[in-house]
Design a protein that fits this description.
The chain has 11 helices and 15 strands. It is α+β, with helices and mostly antiparallel strands and about 375 residues long. The chain folds into 2 domains: about 5-175 and about 345-380, 3-Layer(aba) Sandwich (Aminopeptidase); about 185-325, 3-Layer(aba) Sandwich (Aminopeptidase), CATH 3.40.630.30.
């Protein structure tokens, strides 16, 4: 049956434009905002030579020619910066003399935070959305066969979007992250009071260790931060990234300074100063109406406990003070569990064009999902809360 939709690609988000993008995605999720993805392109964090080539997909109604949906899409020649790891799949292709790259990826580059991945026109029904998703899958299979792309990967889709996908339209893969949930706490002490005595004492001990350094912690709205404060954060980010990975971070000074100009109101810079009022560390957070997102941090001075204080406890303080429901402090990290972060599932969708590999990867993801269910139960038993 012929599709009711027409499909077209653009090589830059500018070809879609901010108004049309916002009509489909809104601005509630900071990482799906036009300004964020546009700045990745403008600052050359993605594009020629990076392995991330913009290939956004516009789905239009054939009858009205109006945009029905937008799919952020990238043509990838590697798997860096995705955080849903498929290196083993690529290696398996290589062992069988098959090419895994290029592949198609729908995600936010370098950001392992769940959210809306398909931007639907406002007002369309759930039934129409499912019809669109089926047509999207058919189109993706066609284009992969024509262009010799091995696969398509929709990464960190929201729980609501996961429920919307038609059954068997794509392989579902699950993962886990650890998020802090605000249970109507009045302050940090109220949060601690919900924990067992031993865990409460451990956190208090950690925070007291940092308090002994007599540091000051201040959240600054990104748009209001000075150039000196931004440059300090960028220096901390790059130094810490270099020390941990041996190379510069994916994101550049031009990217961060561009964000200050275009969506600085959604950014919170945590500036850490010593007793001499010298800046020694910094962390970058994003905010929405409901969420606090901790993304990057760095320090010029290594101090025991400073990472936990800057990246976790200060974030919890901020979330409580500003009545935010969820604090997403980033990917991975079982060490967060003892500090009150609870496990939650993450979802991705995958379409594999090679029949045998499709079957093998589907089986692998099902086994992984079963193991993840057991893992989540085990982690839940380690939560530090009373009752």
């Amino acid at each position: 049956m012929p599709s009711a939709y027409a499909f077209s690609h653009v090589s830059s988000i500018e070809e879609i434009g901010q108004d049309r993008w916002t009509q489909c995605f809104g601005e509630s999720n900071p990482f799906m905002r036009y300004a964020f993805l546009h700045q990745l392109e403008r600052s050359a964090c993605i594009g020629d030579g990076t392995g991330w080539q913009t290939h956004h997909l516009i789905i239009s109604d054939k009858l009205t020619a109006e945009i029905a949906a937008i799919v952020p899409l990238y043509l990838k020649t590697h798997s860096w910066g995705e955080y849903v790891f498929d290196w083993a799949w690529a290696e398996a292709y290589g062992r069988n003399q098959l090419e895994y790259y290029p592949k198609l990826v729908t995600s936010v580059p370098f950001i392992p935070a769940s959210g809306q991945r398909i931007g639907f026109k406002a007002g369309i029904t759930e039934e129409v959305k499912q019809s669109l998703l089926l047509s999207l899958c058919e189109y993706l299979r066609d284009i992969m066969a024509q262009q010799d792309y091995s696969s398509w990967h929709g990464l960190f889709i929201s729980e609501q979007e996961q429920a919307l996908w038609p059954k068997d339209a794509a392989i579902t893969r699950v993962g886990t992250q650890f998020h802090w949930r605000n249970k109507n706490y009045t302050d940090f002490s109220d949060f601690l009071a919900s924990m067992t005595s031993r865990k409460r004492k451990n956190i208090s001990k950690e925070r007291q260790l940092v308090a002994n350094y007599q540091l000051s912690f201040r959240f600054v709205v990104g748009a209001e931060a000075s150039l000196e404060q931004w440059q300090h954060f960028i220096k901390c980010y790059q130094m810490t990234y270099q020390k941990r990975s041996g190379h510069q971070g994916y994101l550049t000074a031009a990217f961060f300074l561009g964000l200050q100009q275009t969506m600085g109101e959604a950014i919170r810079l945590l500036i850490v100063t010593d007793v001499n009022d010298q800046m020694i560390a910094s962390a970058l957070f994003f905010v929405s109406d409901t969420h606090l997102y901790g993304r990057y941090w760095g320090t010029l001075t290594e101090l025991d406990g400073l990472h936990f204080e800057s990246c976790y406890y200060q974030g919890i303080d901020y979330a409580i003070a500003n009545n935010l429901a969820i604090f997403d402090a980033g990917a991975q990290g079982e060490h967060k569990v003892s500090r009150g972060f609870e496990p939650r599932l993450t979802y991705s969708k995958h379409i594999i064009i090679h029949p045998a590999f499709n079957d093998a990867i589907s089986h692998y993801c099902q086994q992984e999902q079963n193991q993840m269910g057991l893992y989540m139960k085990q982690i839940a038993q380690q939560l530090p809360f009373r009752n």
